[in-house]
Amino acid sequence: MAETLLPLKIISTLFKHKFKIIFTFLSTVTTVTIGTYMAKPTYETTSDLLIRFGREYLYSPAVDDDRSPYNYFNDKGVINTEIQIINSFDLVKNVITEIGLEKIYPPPPQEQGGIKKRIFNYIKKTLKSVGLDFFSGKAPEPPNEQNRLARAARQIRQLLVVRGDPAANIIHVSFTHSNPQITADVVNTLVELYKEKHLETFSESSEATAFFKKQVDIYYNKLLKSQKEFEGFQKENLTISPEKQQDLLLKQREKLKLDFFENELQVALKKEPLFANPERNEVVAKGKKELLRLKLEELELSDRYKKDTSKIITIRRQIELLENLLGEMPDKRIIKIRREKIKQQLKKVDKELLNLVLNGIEYHKLKDEVELYSERYQNYKKTLDDFLINDEMDRHKINNIRVIQKAPVPLDPILPRKEMNIASGAILGVILGACIALCAEYLSKKSINLKNNQLEIT
């Protein structure tokens, strides 16, 4: 029974204090409504950026490194790097400087010399004239331009929201402000200056470009000097290719050796008296036998190899030698003269070979220098060309950032939310009115009980 009467009592109490509830409800709703409509509106706008992998993220190995340039960032690393650049304090300060500090955050009225400041100065002057100087202390110094700029930059960074989407390589840049035009101007200016900051962050320094220019000049001069020395050495020593010259001299020496052997054999055979009757001479018989063997071997090799191979040439030379020996022998005096001539030619060839070996060392040393300086010059020149191309692209502001959507001027504020605030005020008014009604009923009953107790005592 008590549980059934309790809701009735509450309803009765609320109805009894209906005017208090209505007054509280209307007061709360009115206050919330007035506060909502008097509150400064807050606008928000967003710009979307597409980050593409470009030349900025390619690592170029050192000059002497043969590896090709490669990407040293992943998708998440690229997005996080770009977010840090957008949130950088210097970039935000540049945005404020570009738009104007007074335009983004106008100074308060007292700093503009408004009516409040004039009234305050008048009261101060009047009190001082009657001997009441309450403001004799040192007035606080107004904040300088740099401090105001730093505070504004911190405030903008607090209101700036930069979100990355590594899966799509997209960055969303949002900003809130009480002025819709300023909101869009801040975001769009930030994006434009961010592009320049991005190029500045990833571009090579002027010192690096100057260094490579200097290295190119140094190795170009070294290359010219080494080429001049190399060409001078070639002209002086008549050396074009030591390897080819050495092969020619070795072939010439081999031929002279064969001639010398033939001459020695002729001398030895000339000393034998048996040559008076060659048909009965055992040496001639052996020679003919060897000649036959060589001719047979020549025929066999001709079927297997080409005619100008070294083996066939050697056999033919031996056949020719034996045929000469078995024929009419030259005079002994002529043989001796020829022998001395071959010796002199051999000595000359050996001397040329020795000089060629010595000159070959110097030749290869100079040639290696030319190749080394040429390689260094080409490497530095290629790197410098890459730097100059990147600098030219930076001057034309060519980068890997694309604006998908510029920040539009917002039409409707995101705060205050009028309908939600008024609805919340209405709910709050009902709750406060009900609480006030129940409290009033409770205090009323308590007061009545207290009076009844006093009457019973008296």
Tell me what you see in this structure.
The structure is a single chain. The strands form 2 sheets. The chain has a 4-stranded antiparallel sheet. The protein has a two-stranded antiparallel sheet with strand order 2-3. By secondary structure, it is of the alpha+beta class. It has 3 domains: 1-39 and 416-458, no CATH class; 41-202, no CATH class; 235-381, no CATH class. It is rod-shaped. Helix 4 (89-99) packs across helix 7 (145-159) and helix 4 (89-99) packs across helix 8 (180-202). Mean pLDDT is 78; it is low at 272-280. It has helices at residues 2-16, 18-38, 75-86, 89-99, 101-104, 115-129, 145-159, 180-202, 206-237, 242-270, 282-304, 310-326, 332-395, 418-457; strands at residues 43-51, 58-59, 70-71, 160-165, 170-177, 401-405. It starts with a helix and ends with a helix.
